Amino acid sequence: MCEALREIMADELSEAERKGERKGKIKFFVEKIPKKLAKGKDLETIADELEEDVERIRHIVMLASKYAPDYDIDAIYNALNGEDK
């Protein structure tokens, strides 16, 4: 019975793991990008340093820029997730 339940739940667990990994990666970018912006780095430099494609991080860079110069990490993360107040 336990093995059958594990098989049924495998897809759901895999999906939850993928969502968790995605959230973690986004949180990483939301924490790193403002620090790099505060140092005066441009989009291309930030993408290169984070070893990411420019287009993948452009949205976060543009959003974080709206919170300059303080770069409230929680506000940026919430805005990115549509929870902007």
Your description of this structure?
The N and C termini lie far apart (46 Å). The mean pLDDT is 89. The protein has helices at residues 2-38, 43-50, 54-65, 73-80. The chain has 4 helices and no strands. The protein has 85 residues and is mainly α.
Describe this structure in a few short sentences.
Helix 1 (2-38) crosses helix 3 and helix 2 (43-50) packs across helix 3.
Can you lay out the helices and strands and say which pair or pack?
Blueprint: H1 2-38, H2 43-50, H3 54-65, H4 73-80
Question: Rg from C-alpha positions?
Answer: 17 Å
Average predicted confidence as pLDDT: 89
Whole-Å distance between the termini? 46 Å
User: How many strands, what sense, and barrel or not for the largest sheet?
Assistant: none
Structural class by sheet pairing and helices = mainly alpha
What order do the SSEs take from the amino end to the carboxyl end, as H and E?
HHHH
Low-confidence stretches: none
Helix proportion range: over 70%
Strand content: under 5%
Q: In total, how many beta strands?
A: 0
Gross morphology: elongated
Tally the helices: what do you get? 4
